[in-house]
Design goal:
With 338 residues, this protein is α+β, with helices and mostly antiparallel strands. A hairpin with a 5-residue loop joins strand 16 and strand 17. The chain is globular. The N and C termini lie far apart (63 Å).
Length: 338
């Protein structure tokens, strides 16, 4: 954790614009008008380290290592130990990066020395010129095809195509990426999601898993053979999940006499909050969790990249529908269990 000393607002550190000796090191130097004191954090992907630095007189120096030639991180500004002032995705590269901006407009920071971040900003600007998500996804797909060696391309594919992915589309995009991008951290993440999509496609047998219920009893998915079962991935802290629960409950009550049930899989980490949400939302079906959050083994196995997410299985344990939201679950059950 480092910060740059100042006297009268002028930097006295030597080598202000020199490059770090280690080619995997970055130095980020920033000036944020109106933010006299505070903290800045660089959260790296996966379980990498978090770099931090104090903001003094509106300026800071943040240093650390870059895992690859480019790494998608999150840059977070905080006032003291309180809530985040601003958080943004950022492409980090080795070398010296300068940042400038104003406390009142942290979403509009100016960067120099990070050409991949420049590409990212240009791509996002063009992306936002498309009014709806379908057009944006088409733009991202075309961008990935025309920029196969781009870290930005693979990050945007992860952003737009990870939730309830179409395996054929994802395979086409992935196969077009260069080997260097495929072997990057984000490329491996894309491959992991693709592999899960290939084994959880419509008509495929649902991958088996066993997790413990609220009382610690192991529950195997295979024990539901002979019923239509909805594997419902959710969490107590997920507001869209909590808003979706009444829809699932309505279908459960309507079709349970016809052989339909639900298996809830929670991405919670704290058991007390998980149990409280089950009680408050009045969820009568079996609930399981390994309390590993986003690392829930069943969620990883099924390639769950966002919640709520669900998979509807027929009586033979084959996936017949997925990603059912709102009235769609009831419509599908009407079709299968009329």
């Amino acid at each position: 954790m480092k910060y740059l000393p100042f006297i009268g607002g002028a930097a006295i550190a030597l080598g202000w614009w020199t490059r770090p000796a280690d080619p995997s090191t970055y130095i980020m130097r920033g000036t944020i008008a109106g933010l006299e004191t505070g903290w800045v954090f660089m959260y790296h992907h996966a379980d990498g380290p978090t770099d931090s630095a104090a903001i003094r007189h509106g300026q800071f120096e943040l240093t650390g290592k870059v895992a690859e030639s480019a790494e998608f991180c999150h840059l977070v500004f905080k006032k003291g130990s309180g809530d985040n002032l601003h958080s943004m995705g950022f492409f980090l590269q080795p070398g010296v990066i300068s940042v400038s901006g104003n406390k009142s407009s942290l979403a509009s920071l100016t960067f120099s020395g990070a050409p991949i971040q420049d590409e990212y900003e240009r791509c996002r600007q063009k992306e936002m010129e498309h009014s709806d998500e379908k057009d944006q996804k088409q733009f991202v797909r075309q961008y990935a095809v025309s920029h196969p060696a781009s870290y930005v391309a693979v990050e945007e594919v992860l952003e737009f195509f990870s939730y309830n992915p179409n395996a054929d589309t994802l395979q086409y995009i992935y196969d077009g990426l260069t080997p260097g991008i495929q072997s990057s951290y984000m490329g491996k993440e894309l491959k992991r999601i693709l592999d899960a999509a290939l084994v959880t496609g419509i008509g495929r047998p649902a991958p088996e898993f066993t997790q413990t219920d609220t009382k610690g009893k192991p529950v195997a998915l295979s024990s539901y053979k002979g019923q239509y079962v909805l594997i419902d991935f959710w969490a107590s802290w997920c507001l869209p999940c909590r808003m979706e629960n009444p829809n699932v409950l309505k279908s459960y009550r309507k079709f349970r006499s016809k052989g339909f049930t639900v298996l809830g899989v929670s991405l919670d980490e704290k058991k007390d909050k998980w149990l409280a949400a089950i009680r408050v939302d009045d969820l009568p079906w079996t609930q399981v969790s390994d309390l590993k959050g986003w690392k829930n083994e069943a969620a990883v196995q099924y390639g769950v990249a966002g919640i709520p997410m669900n998979f509807l299985l027929d009586r033979d344990g084959k996936i017949v529908a997925k990603g059912l939201r709102g009235p769609d679950l009831e419509k599908q059950l009407e079709e299968f269990l009329h």
